[in-house]
Amino acid sequence: MIEFYLNGQSQKLDQTDPNLSILDWLRTKMRLNGTKEGCASGDCGACTVLLGSLDPQGEWQYAAMNSCIGLIGALHGKHLITVDALQREPAHPVQTAMVECNGSQCGFCTPGIVMSLVGLHQQVAAAGQHANAHQLMEALAGNLCRCTGYRPIIEAGARSIVDSVQQWDGSALFSPQPDAAFMAAREQSAVLQDEAGNSFTAPLSLAALRELLIAQPQARLVAGSTDLALEITQQLKSLPQLVSVEQVAELQQLEQDDENLTIGSALTYAQFGPLLNQNWPAFAPMLERLGSLQIRNRATLGGNIGNASPIGDMPPPLIALGAEVQLDSQNGIRWLALQDYFLDYKKTVLQPGEFIRAVRVPKPAANERLFIYKISKRLDDDISAVLAAFWLRLDGEQVEDCRLAYGGMAGIPKRALAAETALRGQTFDEPAIAAAAAALSQDFKPMSDVRASATYRLEVAGNLLRRALYEHRAAHTGGAALTVTDYA
Predict the structure, then answer these.
(1) N or C: which end of the chain has fewer CB within 10 A?
(2) Residue 138 · residue 293 · CB < 8 Å
């Protein structure tokens, strides 16, 4: 059974298909049709809802998410708020601003846009602050307006969240008071099963997770379901056994010492991103382009690595940094270099019953630089055609050591060993970069697909090495920063 709140009202579910998305449950079971399905893949934002979790102080904290790729089991112990809860008076300040600024046209996308803005409003209002223009654009980056009405939508957001943050008389909606029964239930493992035998289980401890994976060797691990759910919504599969890691406290730990940052595999980008950016600022612009805010609020580091996609955004920079992955099972714990985790397309070293527990990322030394570049067809919320990450240890202008890693260039995220050899020990200048770029053809034989041709991929991979050189020079001379498309 799972227990949660829906728009302030307690809900309990038992005999329910665990493959059911939150969106489908809302529309087909609860007849709450305000939330719309646009893409069923987490791209358009029409299905945006707010999911609240209790923090250690017992306060509800809300984050926007895509309900089309959120599975129903993820609601256990949470508070789900949909646009339907905003139909009563008084209107929310965001709704008022959308009307006054003519921010709604056909209206299909409007519920998701409103919920993204309401989520930001709730965040800043609770903190007694105003949002800034950057926060506004980040909140809206995952919402597609089919009528191209972006200007009035942004104006509505600015009026209601940036210029002034009005309090809302209906704010009690965001603060349901859990009773003792609910608090006890949220400390229990979430379990769902339907008549066909499909199951969803969310263990509470590492020991219970290990036992489940031994008992159910065919089970699929799920965290934020931002990728796994596409098998259900796009490929129309039914996944018979789902084991969620979301309630395992040991997988949600974020630790650091003088040398390393250790990130639990079930932490979301929204949770670990700020500390990672603080240590390695090159991650910040890339993480803002990793999906949308709705995706980053749910997607986890372990999921991105475990998915073993050759175009996953996190493995290349982590490989470039020499990060290590911790694997856990009934047979014990082992650490290995992340670059050795990937064997072939969608194949890894994971043994039956084994799972990713954490990732250990070295902290920077004074003479180390990290460059990360993502090339995609559109700037926001898109999959990489090529992702390049370069770690350099410099002695003056000499490349003392380097690791150059790429995604989208092979069946796995992979280091460019020949290019590294051409660059290592050389002066960081145009001839050395030219030699390294030429060596990339020895490292990779990329494929052509809908995102890019093989020729383009090789060309841009070399140009990104040149971009790193020019950015390094600009940082030392005070020159102008490069734009995102300069070497794309």
Answers:
(1) N
(2) yes
CB count in 10 Å sphere of residue 146: 12
Other CB atoms closer than 10 Å to residue 284's CB: what's the count? 14
CA 138 to chain CA centroid, Å, is 13
Sign for the CA dihedral angle at 145, 28, 4, 207 comes to negative
Instruction: Give the per-residue pLDDT at 479.
Output: 55
For position 476, what pLDDT does the model report?
79
Distance, in Å, from the CA atom of 17 to the CA atom of 2, rounded to the nearest integer, reads 12
Interatomic CA distance for residues 381 and 141, integer angstroms: 7
Q: Which of 200, 217, 247 is the last residue of a domain?
A: 247
Domain of residue 316, residue span: 251-477
Cα gap 349→22, rounded to integer Å:
33
Strand 79-81 and strand 2-6: the pairing is parallel
**pTM of the predicted structure, to 2 decimals:** 0.94
Nearest partner of 109 among 149, 79, 77, 167, judged by Cα: 149
Q: Which residue has the tokens 């800034």?
A: 132
Mean pLDDT for the chain overall: 94
Task: Say how many C-beta atoms besides its own lie within 10 A of residue 77's C-beta.
Answer: 23
- Rg over alpha carbons for the chain, rounded to the nearest Å, is 23
Question: Measured in whole angstroms, how far is the alpha carbon of residue 27 from the centre of its chain?
Answer: 25
E strand or H helix at 362: strand 355-362
Cβ distance 19 to 238 under 8 Å? Answer: yes
> Which element (helix H / strand E) includes 215?
helix 206-215
Q: Looking at 126, 154, 174, which one is the last position of a domain?
A: 174
300-325 mean pLDDT: 96
Q: Say if residue 106 is in the same domain as residue 255.
A: no
* Number of domains into which the chain is organized: 3
The amino acid present at 69, given as its one-letter code, is I
| 128 and 208 assigned to the same domain | no
Write the pLDDT tens digit of every residue in 51-110: 999 999 999 999 999 999 999 999 999 999 999 999 888 899 999 999 999 998 898 999
Is residue 236 packed enough to be buried (19+ CB in 10 Å), middle (13-18) or exposed (0-12)? exposed
Proportion of the chain above pLDDT 90, given as a percent: 90
pLDDT of 374-396, one tens digit each? 999 988 888 999 999 999 999 99
CA-to-CA distance for 200 and 478, rounded, in angstroms? 55
> C-alpha distances in angstroms, 142 versus 64, 289, 291, 307?
10, 10, 8, 22
User: CA 452 → CA 100, 239, 315, 387, 459, distances in Å?
Assistant: 43, 32, 20, 12, 11
Q: Please list, in sequence order, all residues whose beta carbon lies within 8 angstroms of the beta carbon of residue 43, skipping any fewer than 6 positions away.
A: 142, 144, 292, 381
Q: 342, 315 in Cβ contact below 8 A?
A: yes
With respect to residue 488, please indicate whether it lies within any of the assigned structural domains.
Answer: no
Determine the Cα–Cα distance for residues 376 and 384; give it in Å rounded to an integer.
5
Is there a contact between 195 and 142 (Cβ–Cβ < 8 Å)? Answer: no
